[in-house]
Design brief:
By secondary structure, the protein is of the alpha+beta class. Helices cover 66% and strands 16% of the residues.
Length: 184
C-alpha cells in the first residue's frame, strides 16, 4: 500500500507540477497579450496625436493663407476702382487747361457735365446706386433727417421736402444715408 500511496503522491506531484507549468505558460501568454494590447493602444494614441497635429497645422496654414488672400483682395479691389478713376482725373486736367483759355461759360458747363456723367457711369458700373428720396415718405432706416420745416400742404407732412446730400447704395448695402429735410 505504501507503494500505491507513493505512486499516488508521485502522480499528484506530477499533476501539480504540470498544472503549475500550464499556469505559468497561461500567465506568460496573458502578459504577452496584455503587453501587445497596451502597445497597440499606445500606437493608436501616437497615430491619433500625429493626425491631430497635422490637422491643426493644416488648419493654421489655411487660416494664414485665407487672411493673406483677403488682404490682397481688398488691395486689388481698390486698385480696380482707382484704375477706373484715372481717365476721369485726366479729363479734369484737360478741362482745367481748356478752361484757362476759354471765356464761354456754356462750354465749361458742358465739359463738367460730361466729366460728371463719365464719373457717375463708372461708379454705377461698380454697383453704386443713388437712393431716391425727394418726395418719399421719411424712413429712419434709410434717411437721415437734418431738420423739419412746415409742410406747404397736408399731403407733404412726413415726407421729404428737400435732399441736402444724396445717399447711395453699393449693391444692396447703404454706404451713405441721404441727408434730408422733412415736412411737418
Amino acid at each position: 500500500m505504501n507503494s500505491e500511496n507513493e505512486n499516488t503522491e508521485e502522480l499528484n506531484e506530477e499533476n501539480t507540477a504540470s498544472e503549475a507549468q500550464q499556469n505559468e505558460e497561461t500567465v506568460a501568454e496573458e502578459v504577452v497579450v496584455e503587453k501587445s494590447e497596451l502597445e497597440l493602444a499606445q500606437e493608436a494614441a501616437a497615430i491619433a496625436n500625429d493626425k491631430y497635429l497635422r490637422l491643426y497645422s493644416e488648419f493654421d496654414n489655411f487660416r494664414k493663407r485665407s487672411s493673406k488672400e483677403k488682404i490682397e483682395l481688398i488691395k486689388s479691389a481698390s486698385e480696380d476702382v482707382i484704375k477706373n478713376m484715372l481717365p476721369i482725373v485726366d479729363d479734369f486736367q484737360r478741362a482745367m487747361k481748356h478752361n484757362a483759355e476759354v471765356n464761354d461759360a456754356d462750354s465749361i458747363k458742358q465739359g463738367f457735365e460730361l466729366i460728371y456723367n463719365k464719373l457717375y457711369g463708372s461708379l454705377e458700373a461698380k454697383g453704386l446706386k443713388k437712393i431716391e428720396a425727394q418726395g418719399e415718405v421719411f424712413n429712419a432706416d434709410i434717411h437721415e433727417a437734418i431738420t423739419n420745416i412746415p409742410a406747404p400742404s397736408d399731403d407733404m407732412k412726413g415726407k421729404i421736402m428737400d435732399v441736402v446730400e444724396e445717399g447711395y447704395y453699393l449693391g444692396e448695402k447703404i454706404i451713405r444715408f441721404p441727408k434730408v429735410v422733412i415736412g411737418q
